[in-house]
Specification:
It catalyses: a 2'-deoxyribonucleoside 5'-diphosphate + [thioredoxin]-disulfide + H2O = a ribonucleoside 5'-diphosphate + [thioredoxin]-dithiol. Among the domains are: 136 residues, no CATH class; 62 residues, no CATH class; 166 residues, no CATH class. The protein is 41% helix and 15% strand. The chain has 31 helices and 27 strands. Strand 21 and strand 22 form a beta hairpin. Helix 14 runs antiparallel to helix 15. It is globular and about 105 Å long.
């Protein structure tokens, strides 16, 4: 995409720049003389976001401008999160163009001022290509870029920070202050407390030291206060302690003891749900904890030998422990409360590009950024599905060439941002400017694997993921070396040159020995091999502009901005998704990746349609018609009937890790049946397979989370004491301004009329209009009133089949012959109307249970006997002249009192008996819970009240885009 040239460059040069050189920028997506904005169709939309718990409006901005292909969710989140200016004022941004221009033009100007481009023409191409890529959701910068760049506030571009703390009260108090300022800005930080002397060591005054665990209490309280004092999300922080620290056992136990406290308080009647009134009394809940283990400890675990805990001041052994027992203690704690996670110190530092400056001791809160203390990293993620190509013959390929060119573009922009970026502390600013750490990554891997017919837990899936990761990082470092030729290597490179080039060789060697599996990954591996060869050659010649290039972040909010089905390295959550509609309301849809995968396997269109219908009904592929069992694994998801095994997640992390500068944000979800031994095995295999860090979560292990409806009912049964009475009311779902409809003219017993039935965009009946006789007549007035009553009921969730069962067979004049071939006789106008509506809007199974069939269906039954229905049903459908028989009356009554179980499941608004109010899904996580009857391990969003979902090691709200992490 780019090359260096000796032409003149505009503006001042950065330190270490070489005169008369600049980057040539190649066009990839754009056309000369045409701005990217002019190539799309723009439309105006209204953004109104509510809190589903009380119906209050969280955010409202009307008339915002976006491309017509952007989803409702992406528009809502970008408008509410990233548009700057006070709502309701002229200064408020109201178009995606303004947002992109604010950021992209700032990057262009900084690039020109710092001598990155060979000419103004190259700067313009850079601007247009960057704008095109954001506009078409090909990539996105991390959230702080969209928050801050181009505004009057500090130009903070980094989401991830690592702090440091020494063994002095001054340093500890600085830690509290620095962490608080980072939280105030909506970001997160991590640090290692292992320099603080343990509680088993003496102070200079002769007394016993408090130990790092005691100081964690103050930091935790500070984080909780800052969160509740202003922000609507939990503070994001990581606390790390080395495994050889004498207080490591107390560190492991911190959250275990608090979990016991939560259980005791809950049993005593206190509100201990996450976000509950009483949960704030529990300590250590605002941080993720991780133990930093080394190879010596892990080998001691394997051999069952002793391991020494060493004093912080002298480095001498303080205590000797059984390594296997300590490892068991970690696994037991993680099994109970998901903490601590584990970080593999020797693996992390084996891939460290700057060891002469200092070791890597900690990570950011989500565990993907790992580098020097007092540093930061700005992130950006590529949408992998944008690089999947399908030709006319149905063949698929990954566009490695275009992927590499976009990677070059994004890495260039990310490095430019450090030139103008502001930082929360001077120490962080100095380190980041000196080492220029970047964190390019990707999202939608799970969707890409499924669309290409690869199981997430398969050799082919891991090979494709590894090849893409290798190409991304290799291209990034190649680009970094090219930039170094123009504006100089990072300041710390000279001191660390040997180590940096050694790590580049390690990446290249890993690429060379990686397994090639099929026609999709092999060309990508070839492109990656070429990129790494360039890295080794150019690096020795020019050095590198960046000490770090890539990570795999959660991609929470920006994943929604790009309309990604999956986040980061995660698999798909489920096969059926929750989708918001432009006119309001929502619908559930089968993932678009499913038909792509079936097409790759050679299934015919009619087979694909049948399989998709099966998934829509059952939520999984088990027993789907014509689907071969050997293809089931391709559709395995993070949750559901066929969920991916915990080791499947670890193996995927291991496939990508050798090709990343940093690490991977991911939590390994484990079923409730998992044992402590299972957790031990995950931690052991994570080390053996070369991952840098991981965490586990055993389903339903934590108390401090929203309880499932079932769990609350059981609790109520056990504790009959009076509870708060909650009144549930249905919510009216209005139709959009433009709505599809069917107008039917009819004649019943000589009386003529017209019926107009309008539906929601997702094909559910929403209103009925009936016109009979002249306006102003009694009959016309009653029909209008009747229509309104039925329409309002439909919009409040009354199922159509309820109306059909009530009003069919109602007898009054006019009655008799009709002009409708499907309903030849009607016992009244109301009888005809609801039979016609049933035929137009109800599925066959529901109509059949109510005895309503079309003429074609009745004929097919007479000819083939294919429908197993008794004669009385068809007699009723033909509307025999006599009144319903006793048997028919009983049958109708049974339909009213005990609807078919499938109907109850499909229309949750119609309970069979007095029961809790039906749940309404507000995102994919809640939809999945309703389908499977399980409880996801996620908290409720503090902003809008919907259930969040996992995104790496953090949580993401699909409703409003809030995250619990730092992305």
């Amino acid at each position: 995409m780019t090359e260096t040239t000796s032409g003149p460059a505009r503006g001042s040069r950065a330190k270490g720049s070489k005169a008369n050189k600049g980057l040539r920028i190649e066009r990839v997506h754009t056309t000369p003389g045409v701005h990217p904005y002019d190539e799309v169709t723009w439309e105006r939309r209204d953004v109104v976001m509510t809190n589903w718990r009380d119906g209050s409006i969280n955010f409202e901005q009307r008339g915002v401008e976006f491309p017509d292909f952007w989803s409702v969710n992406a528009v809502n989140i970008v408008t509410s999160k990233y548009f700057r200016g006070a709502v309701g004022t002229p200064q408020r941004e109201n178009s995606l163009r303004q947002l992109i221009d604010r950021v992209v033009k700032t990057y262009r100007a900084a690039g020109e001022d710092n001598g990155y481009f060979a000419s103004p023409a190259d700067a313009e191409i850079f601007e247009h290509e960057l704008a095109y890529a954001v506009l078409h959701q090909i990539f996105a910068f991390n959230s702080p870029v969209w928050f801050n760049v181009g505004t009057k506030q500090p130009q903070q571009v980094s989401a991830c920070f690592i702090l440091s703390v020494d063994d002095s009260m001054e340093s500890i108090l600085d830690w509290y202050k620095e962490e608080g300022m980072i939280f105030k800005g909506g970001s997160g930080a991590g640090l290692n407390l292992s320099r603080i002397r343990s509680s088993k060591e003496l102070l200079s005054s002769g007394g016993n030291a408090s130990g790092p665990v005691s100081f964690m209490r103050g930091a935790d309280a500070s984080a909780g206060t800052i969160k509740s004092g202003g922000a609507t999300r939990r503070a994001a922080k990581m606390v790390v302690l080395d495994v050889d620290h004498p207080d490591v056992e107390a560190f492991i136990d911190t959250k275990v003891k608090e979990e016991e406290k939560i259980r005791a308080l809950r049993d005593a009647g206190f509100d201990m749900d996450l976000g509950g009134d009483d949960i704030t009394s529990v300590q250590y809940q605002n941080a993720n904890n991780s133990v930093r283990v080394n190879d010596a400890f892990m080998k001691a675990v394997e051999s069952g030998s002793k391991f020494e805990l060493r004093g912080r001041m002298t480095g001498e052994p303080v205590e000797e422990v059984d390594a296997k027992q300590l490892f068991r203690k970690m696994a037991e704690a993680a099994h109970v409360c998901a903490d601590p996670g584990i970080q593999y110190d020797d693996t992390i530092n084996h891939w460290h590009t700057s060891p002469e400056t200092g070791r890597i001791t900690a990570s950011n809160p989500c565990s993907e950024y790992m580098h020097l203390d007092n540093s930061s990293c700005n992130l950006a993620s590529l949408n992998l599905m944008k690089f999947l190509r399908d030709d006319d013959k149905g063949n698929q390929s990954f566009d490695a060439e275009r992927f590499a060119k976009v990677t070059e573009l994004v890495i260039t922009a990310m490095d430019i941002s450090i030139c103008f970026a502001d930082f929360p502390t001077e120490k962080i600013g100095e380190t980041t400017r000196a080492f220029r750490q970047l964190g390019i990554g990707y999202a939608n891997l799970g969707a890409l694997l499924m669309a290409t017919g690869h199981a997430y837990d398969s050799d082919g899936g891991r090979a494709l993921a590894g090849s893409i990761t290798s190409l991304m990082t290799g291209t990034s470092y190649k680009r970094s070396a090219e930039i170094a030729a123009v504006v100089g290597a990072y300041d710390g490179y000279a001191r660390n040159a040997d180590a940096h080039n050694r790590v580049m060789k390690q990446h290249s060697d890993a690429n060379d020995v990686a397994t090639r599996v099929d026609d999709l990954d092999t060309p990508v591996w070839a492109a990656a091999t070429e990129a790494w060869q360039d890295v080794l050659r150019l690096g020795k010649k020019n050095g590198f502009r960046n000490a770090q290039a890539s990570v795999l972040a959660p991609t929470g909010t920006i994943g929604l901005m790009m309309d990604c089905d999956t986040t980061g390295v995660e698999p798909d959550l489920a096969l059926v998704k929750f989708k918001k509609l432009v006119g309001g309301g929502s619908m559930q849809i089968v993932n678009n990746t499913v038909p792509k995968a079936l097409k790759r396997f050679g299934y015919q269109p009619e087979q694909i349609e049948a399989i998709v219908e099966h998934i829509a009904e059952h939520g999984n592929v088990v027993d789907a018609p014509s689907l071969r069992p050997e293809h089931y694994e391709v559709f395995d998801c993070a949750m559901g009937e066929r969920s991916i095994s915990p080791m499947g997640h670890v193996r995927m992390m291991a496939a990508a890790q050798p090709f990343l500068s940093g690490a991977i944000s991911k939590t390994v979800n484990m079923p409730a049946s998992s044992t402590v031994e299972d957790v031990e095995e995950i931690y052991l295999q994570g080390w053996k397979l070369g991952t840098k860090a991981l965490a586990v979560y055993v389903e339903n292990s934590k108390v401090g989370q929203p309880l499932s409806a079932k769990a609350k009912e059981e609790k109520k049964a056990e504790a009959p004491e009076p509870e708060k009475v909650v009144e549930y009311r249905p919510i009216r779902r209005r139709l959009p301004k433009g709505r599809p409809g069917i107008t039917t003219s009819f004649t019943v017993g000589g009386a003529e009329g017209y019926m107009t039935a309008n539906s929601y965009p997702d094909d559910g009946l929403g209103e009925v209009f009936l016109k009979m006789s002249k306006q102003g007549s009694t009959l016309a007035g009653m029909m209008d009133a009747f229509s309104i009553a039925v329409s309002v009921g439909l919009q409040y969730g009354v199922p159509l089949e309820t109306y059909v069962s009530k009003f069919t067979n109602m007898r009054f004049e006019p009655a008799g012959m009709t002009d409708d071939s499907d309903v030849r006789m009607a016992q009244s106008i109301v009888d005809y109307i609801f039979r016609r509506l049933a035929l137009d809007f109800l599925p066959f199974e529901t109509r059949s249970a109510l005895g309503i069939h079309s003429a074609a269906e009745r004929q097919r039954h007479l000819e083939t006997g294919s429908y197993e229905a008794n004669e009385e049903q068809f007699d009723a459908d033909a509307l025999a002249q006599s009144a319903p028989t006793a048997e028919q009356g009983a049958q109708a009554a049974s339909h009213e009192e005990a609807p078919d179980s499938k109907d109850v499941q499909r229309t949750v608004a119609e309970p069979e008996a007095p029961a809790p109010a039906p749940r309404e899904a507000h995102n994919s996580t809640e939809l999945l819970e309703m389908q499977l009857g399980l409880n996801a391990d996620a908290p409720l969003c503090f902003s809008c009240g919907t259930k969040m979902r996992r995104a790496g090691s953090c949580y993401l709200c699909e409703g409003c885009g809030s995250t619990s992490g730092c992305s």
